[in-house]
Amino acid sequence: MALKKDQTNPYIFYNLAVYYFLDNDLVRTGKCLDKALLLNPAFEDAFLLQYTLVGEKNPADQKTLLTLLSTIQSHNKNLASTNYLKGVILQNQGEYIQAIDSY
């Protein structure tokens, strides 16, 4: 119902993504997260859920997420969970010095 009234609200798409994620519908989860991030490129919670879906399993996606996280950080450098997530990705890639700097 809320989606029919406001298709420009990224939080609606994020909440729908969480619902689909809990229902184990990963295709719809991904589509909703993509829409949420399209509407708000600095939506940290959507990035964290997206990383949960694909980032840990696919190194290519980790590089994409690093680029996106850098975009978020350019808007707000004090997002603790974004810094942590960036550190985890860099650590997984063996970039230990950069990971330490991110933490």
Structural class per helix/strand content?
Answer: mainly alpha
CATH topology: Serine Threonine Protein Phosphatase 5, Tetratricopeptide repeat
Distance between the termini: 40 Å
What order do the SSEs take from the amino end to the carboxyl end, as H and E?
HHHHHHH
Strand segment count: 0
Number of self-contained structural domains: 1
**What general outline do the C-alpha atoms trace?**
globular
What percent of the residues sit in helical stretches (DSSP H or I)? over 70%
Instruction: Work out the radius of gyration.
Output: 14 Å
Task: Quickly name the level 1 CATH class.
Answer: Mainly Alpha
Beta-strand percentage range: under 5%
Largest sheet descriptor: none
- Assigned CATH superfamily: Tetratricopeptide repeat domain
Mean pLDDT: 78
Secondary structure tally, helices: 7
Give start-end ranges of low-pLDDT stretches: none
CATH architecture: Alpha Horseshoe
